C-alpha cells in the first residue's frame, strides 16, 4: 500500500478494500503519535485520487503543491496568519469544517472520488466543529472519503467512532525503529541510534525529534545515576550546567520528556518496596516535567531535581 515500515496489517486491510471496490466512506486511522499514520493517510489519498484519473505522478505533484481540487487537508493553523511559523491554534475550528461544504456541493472534478484528511481528528473543537463533522459522516457527501487521523480515539465522540471503519496502527518494534533511524540519520553513531530507539518507545517520529541532541550522553548519565545514586552530585551538576544554558533549550525539553519514561522502564523489573519507590519517582518526574515549561522554572535547577528523582532508583535497589 505504502513504503511505510511496520503495521502491515492495517495497510493491507485498506489496500484490500480499495482494490475490491468496497471502500467505506470514513476511516479512523488510530494509534500512537509518530508511527506513520499521517503519511499513510496522504499515501492513501494519492491512491484514491489517482485511481480514476490514471495519472499517479500528476496527482502526487498536485497533492504536494496543495492544488488538487478533490483533496482537503485540515489541521491546526497558526494563530497569527501573518506568522506562518508561529504558534498553532489549540484546535481545528468549526469554520474549517464548514468550509468543506463548497467542495461537497459539486461533483469530484478530476477523480472518481474526493478525499478529506483531518490530522488530527483529536484537535477538532468540541462541541461545534465535532457536531458539524458528524453531520457529514452521518450523511456522507457522494464520492467523498474521510481519513481521520487520531492519537487518542477513546476521547472522540462515540458517534464519530461508530461512523468509521477502524485502522489501528501499533508501536513499531525496536528493530523497525532502528531501521528508520539508520535510513534517516546515516551519520548517527550506534550509541546514538540505540538511545533514540529507547526514547522513541516504538515511535520513529518521536525518536527523530530527539535527533542531533546527543541523547546518548544524557542516557549515559541517567543510567549511571540510577545505578550508584551519584553520591557526590557530580553527574547531576553536570546535567544542570549543560541543560541550564539558553542554547540548550531543545535538549533540555528532550531531557524533560525522557526522564519519566526512563524511570518507567527501570520500574518494569522492580517489585515490592522498590517498585513503589520507582512509581513515586515516576509520578514526581511527570509532574515536574509538566510544570517546568509552563511555569518557566529554572532549567538548571529542574535538571538537578530530575536527576535526584532518578537517584531514588539506586536507593531502591
From TrEMBL:
Pfam families: DNA_pol3_delta2
InterPro entries for this protein: DNA_Rep/Repair_Clamp_Loader, P-loop_NTPase
Top-rank taxon: Bacteria
Name this polypeptide is given: DNA polymerase III subunit delta
